[in-house]
Amino acid sequence: MQRRTFLSCLPLAGASATGLGSLATTPAALAADAWPAKPITLIVPFPPGGPTDIIGRTAAKLLSDRLGQPVVVENRPGAGGNLGTDQIAKAAPDGYVLGVGVISSLSIAPQLLPKLPYNVKTAFTPVSMLGIAKGAIVAHPSAPFHDLKGLIAYAKAHPKSLPFGSSGIGTSNHLAGEYLQSLAGIELVHVPYKGTSQAAQDLLGGQLLLSFETSLATTAPNVQAGKLKAIAITAATRSPLLPQVPTVAEQGFPGFDVPSWFGLIGPAGLPKDVVATLNRVLTEGLKRPDVAERFAQIGAEPAPSSPEQFAKRIADENQRWGQVIRDAHITLD
């Protein structure tokens, strides 16, 4: 009874009072009217503990609290986030399987991987942006460089011998590394992990000297504790979590800007009323001060949007990264 009361107060998008009778006879309207009648699965395409997981779990709680049904997070890591993203694409469009879409799977991989198992233009329903995070280039304290100039000098003196970690092939931090190599004329060795947490462990242990991080979730505290040293922020502006660390752009590469963004997506064909309800709940929830504080802890900011704005961002970023990849001759060979 409580669930029906909640849903009845939500207006059907695009429906007039006189049209409610005819709308209720359509399959999409029936599905939306009964939704959610059972727990919802939220797929996070990276392992627990990283920024995608933290943002996904925050969104899951916002939805669960408002919709009156559990929203169960399932971590499906692999292939730089593309494995879990493909599972979202292949789910039934009934509103019971949603997922976190990220820049790497939605806007970079389509330009970099010719055999991607999903078509980003037709496989998804964008619901809302969730947040934007700034990343960083970080190094183990034993690394023989302390800033970007020193890193580049070392890499030029030791070509193809300095490994750098990322959260997977085709991820935004992988592309940040490839992009920097093309601009600086250096050759590093890419070491892909299944998520940021695993890369961070090896970096802290000294098995890895250099990493391109998608957020500052673990980076900032470890830099402040002297366990890591920050080389540069990979976004256009400095981070409040590490205000003393200059950006890549400040250190000789103007225009370098590789933030990470996260959004809620579903499979293509989600009922419009389900999309409208999800968007409304997220738009309201992401404005809460406690959510902004949680995001700030990983160097991220809430960034709710309309479904149309999110769809435009995905398309615009595909165009941007396609151009970067072509101009820089970035390949996975």
General description of the model:
The strands form 2 sheets. A 6-stranded mixed beta sheet has the order 2-1-3-10-4-11, sandwiched between helices. A 5-stranded mixed beta sheet has the order 7-6-8-5-9. The protein has helices at residues 2-8, 20-23, 27-34, 51-67, 82-89, 103-112, 148-157, 172-184, 196-205, 219-224, 272-285, 289-296, 307-327; strands spanning 40-44, 71-75, 97-102, 124-133, 136-139, 163-166, 189-192, 210-213, 229-233, 260-267, 300-302. By secondary structure, it is α/β, with parallel strands linked by helices. The protein has 2 domains: 2-132 and 260-327, D-Maltodextrin-Binding Protein, domain 2 (3-Layer(aba) Sandwich), CATH 3.40.190.150; 136-251, D-Maltodextrin-Binding Protein, domain 2, CATH 3.40.190. It is 41% helix and 17% strand. The longest helix has 21 residues, at 307-327. α4 (51-67) crosses α11 (272-285) and α6 (103-112) crosses α13. The protein contains 13 helices and 11 strands. β1 (40-44), α4 and β2 form a beta-alpha-beta unit.
Entry summary:
This is Tripartite tricarboxylate transporter substrate binding protein. The protein is of the alpha/beta class.
